[in-house]
């Protein structure tokens, strides 16, 4: 399997499944006359980030992960989304961005150095494979599963198949 095949399809699967989760969440709000902002601002615990930020971070980890692994310019996207439609638009733009990468761009990326910020003006450098498996994917999936957990906790009828995007 190529490194491209290990990276891009995984990001795309979850980005697309989150779009489906948000569609179900939006319908849930409409059916139960719940103000969407309530669900979009929901958290699993008071010190955790709300649903909107979880989705934004999933997008950031996918787009920045691809960019860093291919040594492309790292995109910066302002976090301005406040509606389901805006979040789904951000997911769609991220899908398009991730799809824009080619297998050739990932050739040798598993063994190349990837330097990335780790907060407060600090950086870390890892080989591409290590960056993917120890940083990018864990963060990407953490925020995706947290978004799923927020929706499920608030009564949206979703399960594992929805999370995996196979329902």
From TrEMBL:
Q: Which InterPro entries match?
A: DinB/YfiT-like (IPR034660), DUF1993 (IPR018531)
Entry's SUPFAM superfamilies?
DinB/YfiT-like putative metalloenzymes
One Pfam family from the UniProt entry?
DUF1993
UniProt-recorded name of the protein: DUF1993 domain-containing protein
């Amino acid at each position: 399997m190529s490194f491209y095949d290990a990276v891009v399809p995984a990001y795309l699967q979850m980005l697309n499944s989150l779009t489906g989760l948000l569609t179900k969440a939006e319908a849930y709000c409409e059916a139960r006359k719940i103000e969407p902002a309530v669900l979009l601002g929901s958290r699993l615990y008071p010190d955790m980030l709300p649903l909107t930020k979880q989705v934004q971070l999933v997008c950031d980890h996918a787009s920045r992960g691809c960019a860093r692994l291919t040594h492309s310019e790292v995109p910066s996207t302002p976090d301005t989304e406040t509606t389901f439609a805006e979040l789904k638009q951000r997911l769609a733009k991220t899908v398009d961005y991730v799809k824009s990468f080619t297998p050739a761009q990932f050739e040798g990326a598993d063994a190349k150095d990837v330097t990335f910020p780790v907060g407060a003006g600090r950086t870390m450098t890892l080989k591409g494979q290590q960056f993917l498996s120890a940083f990018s994917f864990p963060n990407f999936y953490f925020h995706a599963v947290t978004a799923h957990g927020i929706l499920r906790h608030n009564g949206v009828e979703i399960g594992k198949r929805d999370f995996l995007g196979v329902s």
